[in-house]
Amino acid sequence: MMKNRNIKSKILTVYIYTMLLSFGTWLLGGVVYNFCYREEINENLITLQLELKYIANLQNHKLQNIGLTNSKALIAKSIVGEFTDQHNTPQVIRNFYYEYFNTHGWVIKESRNYPKIYIKAQNTNYIITVEQITEGENKWRIIIGNNTFFERHKL
């Protein structure tokens, strides 16, 4: 009986150390990445911003509050922008973006109409989310990020 407890204790200790080592490696890697590749990260953010503006301009939406998403991700970076549409109903906006993604090589990963409209699509380069923020003002948010392991898992 004593041998089983000792073995379980050692397995648990190895597991805890492995988790701590994995977390430390991820944390250190993220800090080094953000420090050493600052220029590349900024260029990538500019590219994401241009793509975000392009998609919003397809429907003549003027983006406001464009910036980095408020995320705790260490490596993944994404851009967010908001717009208000007083001319179209939420369903028209949803149908436009849904059709655009479907006909331009994007794969719709998630689409729902309740409680608010939400579409998540991805292609080989980007992951994009179009979501309704408020119903009364018909306010929307578009988030775009690179289609990478880190972005998909918000790391």
Fold and architecture overview:
- The protein is of the alpha+beta class.
- It is 47% helix and 26% strand.
- It is built from four helices and six strands; from the N terminus they run ααββαββββα.
- It has helices at residues 2-36, 38-57, 90-103, 149-152; strands at 64-68, 78-84, 107-112, 118-122, 126-134, 139-146.
- Strands 1-2-6-5-4-3 form a six-stranded antiparallel β-sheet.
- The mean pLDDT is 91.
Q: How is the topology of this model organized?
A:
Layout: H1 2-36, H2 38-57, E1 64-68, E2 78-84, H3 90-103, E3 107-112, E4 118-122, E5 126-134, E6 139-146, H4 149-152
Antiparallel strand pairs: 1-2, 2-6, 3-4, 4-5, 5-6
Largest sheet, strands/sense/barrel? 6 strands, antiparallel
What is the helix tally? 4
Percentage of helical residues? Answer: 40-55%
How many strand elements? 6
Q: Which runs of at least 5 residues are low in confidence (pLDDT < 50)?
A: none
**Beginning-to-end CA distance, first to last residue:** 42 Å
Q: Strand percentage, roughly?
A: 25-35%
Structural class: alpha+beta
Radius of gyration equals 21 Å
